[in-house]
Amino acid sequence: MQFSTAFTIALAALASMVVADSESFGMITIHSGTNLQYAHVYADNGNLLVGNSGDFFTATVTDAGKLKLSDDKYAIAQDDGTFKEGSETDGSTGFAVSKGRLTYKNSDGFFAYPIDASSYTLSIKSSDSATGIAVSARSQTDGSTIPDFTPSGSSADASVVTSSVAVTKSVTSTTSVAVAKSATVAAISQITDGQVQATVSQQTENGAAKNLAGLSAFAAAAAMLL
Question: Which residue positions does the secretion signal occupy (predicted)?
């Protein structure tokens, strides 16, 4: 059986639509006024840490909702809330990108536990010694936040995100952050800043509004056919 070139291209396009990962991004932590502002996520002895040492990691969220790291390993959430690296089979699902931030199980709240003066353990659970942070998903080309990404193979919904930190946004016009991936360095010249203030719960639900807008459009189209 022979397939035409057009049919082959159509199949490839369909496959790319069905299975797709997010854009590759750098993981920059945000908490104004601390040394966690513009730190990055890296690995040490298989554990995911936050700080300004270690190799800078980039990542993608896979179509299955797993966080694939630039060393071809995957993030695994532990029972105590911390993360380690492992195989794709063991990688935890539930990751997504919403409003420029990495989320896990519909929450963009992460925490950093101090190890020493310059390094922290990344966690999804809080304690008295932990500092709340956001993980900004930054493009490797221009430093901007990447588009929202909701894995088709995950229950995560980028439109419904619970935030464990209240953030006051401002624009720092003169800040430049060097982001390295192998030999590639992306300069972030303008970054939307975030000041962690307190622990609150915020949820955005626009599903009902979308459904109402869809029904209105459908009714308008039907009226034109009458």
Answer: 1-20
SS3 207: helix
**Quick check: 121 and 49 in contact, CB under 8 A?**
yes
| Counted domains in the chain | 1
pTM, two decimals, is 0.66
Q: What residue type is assigned to position 115 of the chain?
A: I
Task: Tell me phi and psi for residue 16, to 5 degrees.
Answer: -65, -30
Long-range CB contacts (within 8 A, 24+) of 204-207:
204/159, 204/160, 204/161, 205/159, 205/160, 206/159, 207/159, 207/160
Reported as a pLDDT band with limits 50, 70 and 90, residue 213 is very low
Domain that holds residue 14: 5-225
C-beta atoms surrounding 99 within 10 Å: 17
- Alpha-carbon distance of 16 to 19, in angstroms, equals 5
